[in-house]
Known about the structure:
It is an enzyme of class 2 (transferase). By secondary structure, this protein is an alpha/beta fold.
Amino acid sequence: MKQLKPKTLTILLVDDKPENLVSLEHMLEGENREIIKANSGNEALKVALRHNDIGLIMLDVQMPDMDGYEVARLLQTNPKTKDISIIFVTAINKDEQFVMRGFREGAIDYLSKPLDINVTRAKVSVFEKLYRSQSALKEAIAEKEKINKQLERFMYVVAHDLKSPLSGAIGLLALINDDERIQNAPDLKEYMKIVLGATNHLTEMITSMLEYTRQSDMEQTIEDVNVHELIAQLSHLLFPPAHIHIVTEGTLPVLETNKLKLQQVFQNLISNAIKYNDKKEGLITIGGTDKGEYYEFYVKDNGPGVAKRDTDRIFRLFERLDNDGKEEGSGIGLNIFKLLVEEQGGKVWVESQPGEGSTFYFLWRQS
Length: 367
């Protein structure tokens, strides 16, 4: 696998004495570093506003016209520069009150002149590691947000395309339900009632999906969700065959969360467990454990199981396994399950024994 080149750390050196700038530049030169210099507070502010990628400012405190404290204060008040880290460099003002003022103005550290070359390099190297870790995290978050947006668009297309034919089916079912032959047959009438109830519930779900994809993350509804009731609704909606039983173990919680997302997670897991069960008597068990910040849920089945080599692969987009002649899935469901869980900081994993069944686990944030 090709290794990516580390992100360049841009360091702005600010001092009114040219010789100090040259000395500091010599100390801090290194691979994947770019050094920029400014000889006054005013020039430092202009440089910081021109460059979008400054990671660290080494800022002299005592300068004519505008001292380092004032420069730091102005940087902190500007949205474009407020997150730039600052290390103050000073020959005087070593008293605690001056050091604390520096931290209040936004400094992450303090260095005293004359600078010790080893200490200076060590402190900047520590910051550099933190800077690169933060940059990698920001890139990972941005990539995840990109994938989430793609997922939302995919959901919208699917939901939109399903809604029209489903509305037509509901209208046709309503006409059939009004037929005298149905009305005069109690068993058929009850079956039609169940089918109409399920299709109307499915329509509501699709409408909710469409609403969800129209809203930003900040606008999505957070509500109290009774997980036991949610599982009961899904168990009814998914129409499991008579030989497959869905049960819950223990007491499931009431969570303050996004109901649609949690519903999608359980629906993917339960529908897969129903679809691929190969036993005469199928059993799907749902339970969980309170882990503090997160609740650990599991969906256990007694189906065909998954080979150890495939337990990671099944969560990838469009990955499909050989199901011994059974109908293959799209390879999307478990990937959506994984994305939805990881979107709110959780994680997914599976434990499986071929021939005996699988247990899918996921951590879901409690509030």
